[in-house]
Specification:
The chain has three helices and four strands; from the N terminus they run E-H-E-E-H-E-H. The chain is α+β, with helices and mostly antiparallel strands. A four-stranded antiparallel β-sheet has the order 2-3-1-4, with helices on one face.
């Protein structure tokens, strides 16, 4: 059975455009190295947080959708946890239904 994962993370707003792009690339490369296939990455831009986190009132939101082994998530989340640039992160697992799987294979 195949799974699709979605990781949403918030970067510090004071990083600047270049460092933000480097951080996004770093996390994409971690997933690729672990055997995951990136389906989509959305840079959602700077938004105001609902409450202050680590003395930050705003954050840069990034969403990555990918499929791959479960072990890739542990490596990705460890890198995010140890990083000073990530304020928060959340990974959600979505099961691919039998009806959706043939449609995806036909596209490939």
């Amino acid at each position: 059975m195949s799974y699709i994962y979605e990781t949403m993370y918030i970067l510090r707003p004071d990083l600047g455009e270049e460092l933000t792009d480097q951080a996004i690339s770093k996390y994409q490369n971690i997933l690729r190295e672990q055997g995951a296939e990136l389906l989509e990455t959305q840079h959602r831009g700077k938004r105001r947080l609902a409450y202050e986190i680590k003395k930050q009132r705003e954050g840069v939101y990034v969403q990555m959708n990918y499929s791959g082994p479960g072990g890739a998530i542990a490596v990705l989340e460890r890198a995010m946890r140890l990083s000073e640039e990530v304020v928060r992160y959340l990974t959600v697992k979505q099961e691919v239904t039998a009806e959706a799987a043939p449609a995806e294979e036909a596209e490939a």
